[in-house]
Each structure stands twice: as C-alpha cells, then as structure tokens.
User: Fold this.
Amino acid sequence: MEKVAREIQELKVEKGALILAHNYQAEEVQLIADKLGDSLGLAREAIRTDSEIIVLCGVDFMAETIKILNPEKKVLIPDQTATCPLANMVDLKKLNSLIDRYPEAEVVSYVNTTAETKAHSDICCTSANSIEVVRSLSKRKVIFLPDQNLGRWVSKWVRDKEIILWPGYCYVHQELISLEELKRLKALHPNAAVIAHPECTPAILELADKVTSTTGMVNFVKGGEAEEFIVATEQGLCKRLQRENPNKQIWEFPGAICKDMKKITIEKVLDCLKREENEVVVRPETLEKARVPIERMLKIG
Ligand code: 13P
Ligand code: SF4
Assistant:
C-alpha cells in the first residue's frame, strides 16, 4: 500500500495533477488526496486550480460538476461506476411535467443530481448552502430536487417559501442511520454532542445538536467544546474526524457505508492517473446549460 501511495505522489508531481477526495472516501484514499472536502468545497477547489488534470475520488455527479466548471481540463474518476442512487432518482419526464404544472416556481437542484437534471434547473445548492440558496430566490414557490429530507430541513428555516418536494432520499442517511440506533448511542454516551447530515430523517435531525454538511462537521468537531460526538453520516467522515481529533471520541453508526463511495481504491487512483483513463465526458449542450445553476450557486456566500 505504501508503494502505491508513493507511486501516486510521484506521478502526480510529474503530471501536475490534482487529486480531490470527498470526505466519505476510504481512509487510504483520503491520505493520498491533495484536498479533502464536501461537495461545495470540492467544486470551489476545482475552480481555483491551475492543474490540467484533476482526479476526483468520489461519485459521478461530483466529477461531472468539476468537469462542468472546467470544460477544458481533463477530469478523471478512478471508477466510472461509482454513482449516487439519490442523484439518479430524478426522472426528467416527471420533472418536466412538474415544471409545467408550476411554471411560477424556481427549480433548486441539490448538487447530488445528474448534469441533465442540473441543465433543467435554475440554481444548485449543497448541504452547506441550501438555506442561503433558497432564501436568495425572488419567487415564492420552489421545486426542490431530489432529497426530501434536505428539502424539509430547508423549509423549516425558510418559512416564506412554498417548497414542493421531490420524493428522493439517500439510502445511507434514510435507512442505515436509524432513530433506534441513535437512541442506543445516546444512552451509551450521554455526554456526546449529536451532529447530523441534513439528508437524515426529520426524527434524527430533531435530536441533533448540529445539522450541517460534512465539512461543516469537520469544523464543528475541531472548534467544539464537547469531547465526544455521535456522527449521523457516512463512516468515511468519521475516520477523518477521529484522525484529525485524536483527543476526542467519535461514535459512528454501524453499517452507515455508501457502497459507491467505497468503490474508489488507491490502486484504481494509480491506474487512472497512469493511463489517464476514465475521463468524465458531459455533452457540450448539457454542459453549457448545467453550468448556469452551478455558477449562480457559487456566487452566493
Ligand atoms: P456533503 O456535500 O455534505 O459532503 O454531502 C454529500 C453527500 O453525498 C452526502 O451524502
Ligand atoms: Fe449519494 Fe447517499 Fe452516497 Fe451521498 S451517501 S453519495 S447521497 S448515496
């Protein structure tokens, strides 16, 4: 493993490549990345870089977003089958009929969507800025895609908007992070602060001391006074939190693993960097349309 990591470092310098990794990546991948982040942080990182080759360790919609923001660069993903089931829950035909039904509404797409869905949207958001994005809109009606838990969370904080929810969800946060398990963890660790991702169910969010994006959690644990944290999100982030806060105790949800995030291995990173294969391609017409809502989001905050 050390040999693979060393080879990646050498190749990266030789090719002037940048490796970006999402906070849910396996620890071995986190350790070889130039930058770790949440969806918003990775998108911002991608527009700052001069590197001509960007390797995105994460799932397809993240790589597509980076390609859309950097159409002239080579964007590679170590495993092209790494996808996000939540992002794939939008059916374009149904979306078009919803837009026809509510022509007065603005369409807000969570960044966990395909490029095609983004191309049908007015603005994007991530878990880090969803409330600010919806507050910034001038229209009262909003079609919010595709995560219903995140949409409900936003509607709790933005009372003057009517939010039409899409019935999508993330199986990790909806099914693998249960209220029963949270209650069990709280009983075992009564002094722990509970931090939760807004894709969790309302019952979990109700009991959380902090609801935020994955990088929001990194900052909260680092700056927080608590010494123990129950972390209601995917386990990859818990590995980062424990590594960066060795004096604090991180309690994770057993089994809360995103299978697609874990398809990326350092062997695959090395292979794709070596061969410069697995390039992300977005149709030019879709790319141009999808760039508008992403750039509109990036101007906020
Ligand atoms: P973040 O943008 O908070 O990192 O979340 C992305 C994601 O896929 C959550 O499941
Ligand atoms: Fe998609 Fe859920 Fe995996 Fe995030 S954790 S990438 S929302 S399936």
